[in-house]
Specification:
It comes from Massariosphaeria phaeospora. Keywords: Membrane, Transmembrane, Transmembrane helix. Pfam families: DUF3429. This is Mitochondrial inner membrane protein 1. The chain is mostly helical. It folds into two domains: 104 residues, no CATH class; 179 residues, no CATH class. Helices cover 62% and strands 0% of the residues. Helix 7 packs parallel to helix 9 and helix 8 packs antiparallel against helix 9. It is elongated, with a radius of gyration of 40 Å. The relative contact order is 0.08.
Length: 335
């Protein structure tokens, strides 16, 4: 088989040399990466490309490709390749293009599941409550049960209302489901306000005990702001109340995390608060989804603001009726 020198020169000048990685270099012999044609082309002087910068190397290669010695190429064109069985093996002309680590030992191969395993370990460590005291862990998780009970009750009532036939559902009638729904909604909002106030009061107890030092108004402010944000939600419509409490739980979790990093709380408090906030947030989202399914069929329960507005409008109407009656009495008296 003949191979012209022009093709060899073009391939050497235009194609960057393939460099094996460290792992492949240990597994594959140097014969796989160098070709010995036993011709004069192997004796050409080579420029020190490795010492040049990448841009300079590309320019030199392009220059060599443009300047071709035609006489030398004619000489190379007439040259025949001589067989060299001693340097030829079953793998001397094979390149593992399927994978660069094809010849690496099994112990050095890349673990393709390492990323997934790392994510699983991160999730496990995030929800790990082994450092939390047993009593606090049990009572804290039990405190989330009322939230889940009201959320699942909301979803059940919404499902009964949407799937009722002629006013009758599978477990209860549509009217009963709507009445139960109007009972569950204020219970969930009121319970959320209580929990938010309790979480803020924890920082007052830590300040009283001097845990992590005494920080004064900075730590007292947490216990003051929490109920100031929580209790106005009992006057809001359900959707706005739940969204406000969701944001309040998230913000209070962030504050508790920063307090843990500063040493104001026990080291396990940040993970403990994350798990509880995650569960409460999931319950709030479930309630919002269930309530949204029947927003067009069930009206909301009149809140305190609606009652105050009703009393004000009723007082104005009664005052107008009294004035009208007084004028009619005065006209009748004048006659």
């Amino acid at each position: 088989m003949l191979r012209t020198g022009a093709t060899r020169l073009a391939l050497r000048s235009l194609t960057p040399a393939v460099r094996p990685t460290a792992k492949v270099a240990r597994a594959v012999s140097a014969i796989q990466w160098t070709a010995h044609f036993n011709s004069a082309t192997c004796k050409r002087p080579q420029l020190p490309m490795a010492q040049s910068k990448p841009i300079q190397t590309a320019i030199l290669r392009r220059t060599l490709a443009d300047k071709i010695d035609l006489e030398a190429e004619k000489k190379y064109a007439q040259e025949k390749l001589k067989p060299d069985p001693e340097r030829v093996s079953a793998t001397s002309s094979i390149h593992p293009f399927v994978g660069e680590v094809g010849g690496a030992p099994a112990a050095e191969q890349v673990d393709m599941m390492s990323g997934v395993k790392g994510d699983v370990d991160t999730i496990k460590s995030t929800f790990d409550l082994s450092a939390v005291p047993r009593q606090a862990n049990i009572l804290g998780l039990a405190g989330v049960l009322p939230y889940f009970a009201t959320s699942m009750g909301t979803v059940l009532c919404a499902w009964e209302i949407n799937h009722s036939n002629a006013g009758y559902g599978y477990l209860m009638s549509a009217d009963t489901a709507e009445t139960l729904l109007h009972i569950l909604e204020p219970l969930q909002v009121g319970y959320g306000a209580v929990i938010l106030s309790f979480l803020g009061a924890i920082h007052w107890g830590l300040e009283f005990a001097g845990y992590g030092g005494y920080h004064g108004y900075r730590r007292y402010a947490i216990g003051v702001v929490a109920p100031a944000v929580a209790w106005p939600t009992v006057l809001m419509p359900l959707e706005y109340a739940l969204i406000t409490q969701f944001c309040a739980f998230t913000m209070l979790y962030y504050i508790d995390t920063r307090a843990t990093y500063r040493g104001w709380t026990p080291p396990w408090f940040a993970i403990y608060r994350f798990v509880l906030t995650f569960l409460v947030g999931a319950a709030i989202v479930v309630s919002l989804v269930g309530r949204g399914q029947i927003a067009h069929r069930v009206g909301r329960v009149p809140g305190a603001v609606d009652r105050i507005k009703e009393l004000r409008d009723g007082a104005e109407d009664r005052l107008a009726e009294d004035e009208k009656a007084a004028r009619a009495h005065d006209k009748a008296k004048a006659k």
